[in-house]
Amino acid sequence: ESEQAGKFEIAGGGSIRMEPEKPTHYNNRINDGSDLSVSEAVELTGSKWVKEGTVESAEHFMKTTLPDVIDDLPIVSIGKKRRGGNVSPTSVARAPGAGKKKFPLQGQLDSLSLDDPDTCVAKVTPERIYSVACHPSPERIIACAGDKTGHLGIWNVDQYGVPDGGGDEVSEESKASSSSTDGVHLFRPHRGAISCLEWNASGTTLLSASYDGSVRAFDANKQV
Questions:
Q1: Of 20, 136, 145, 178, which residue is the least packed, with the fewest Cβ within 10 Å?
Q2: What is the distance between the alpha carbons of residues 92 and 25, in angstroms, rounded to a whole number?
Q3: Of 57, 76, 85, which Cα lies nearest the Cα of 179?
Q4: What own/partner pairs with CB < 8 Å and gap ≥ 24 does 10-17 have?
């Protein structure tokens, strides 16, 4: 018998084609620890979740929407509060006269409200959620969730239910990130459950820790 180029020659005639083994990584990780591009992280979710325009929508969010949100963040200095103080988005906390006088914590909690669950609920990950983190933007609600199979869902809540089109002023790129996904973008940076998610203070890096024994950092500036 002999083997050459993935094919076994058997004595007496005939041959058997052997498929090369796919590389495996420690603890069944996604890869050997190399950087993942946005498109790669999306495509790793599988054909069930990747539809026409899914990759383009996620890339637009990461390359355009998220940097715009980061640019709008107040400047943070060590030992100093953010300009404008800690102000919750108006869609989360509705405290009458909140900008005029200070409310005790209980008063702020009492003022919280849940929007209509029929119009502001989205499926963010395929499996059970193990971790949650919100982007530090005081103006926009961007919620992130990690599930038990390593999927990372990022929900741009303000994009929920925005109709396709919307007038000539809406760009084609904006349309790609509209109601087809309800502002939800799915990635798979891990294969094990994502046990922890954390944004840095400047909102430029999202850290994720997984049961597969790896920690990844998504850099919004580098897109990896």
A1: 20
A2: 42
A3: 57
A4: none
- Tokens read off for 66: 């998220």
How far apart, in Å, are the Cα atoms of 201 and each of 133, 142, 144, 204, 207? 12, 14, 15, 8, 12
| Inter-residue contact 156 to 61 (CB < 8 Å) | yes
Separation between Cα atoms, residue 215 and residue 54, nearest integer Å: 25
Query: 107 forms bridges with which residues in the sheet?
Result: none
pLDDT at 16: 58
Is the separation of the CB atoms in 75 and 203 below 8 Å? Answer: no
For the chain, helix, strand, coil in percent to 5 are 20, 20, 60
Regions in the chain scoring below 50 on pLDDT = 1-3, 77-86, 88, 93-96, 98, 163-171, 173-179
Q: What's residue 211's pLDDT?
A: 94
Alpha carbon distance 83, 81 (integer Å): 6
Which pLDDT value is given to residue 171?
44
Comparing CA positions, the residue from 1, 33, 28 lying closest to residue 15 is: 1
Please report the pLDDT score of residue 103 as a whole number: 56
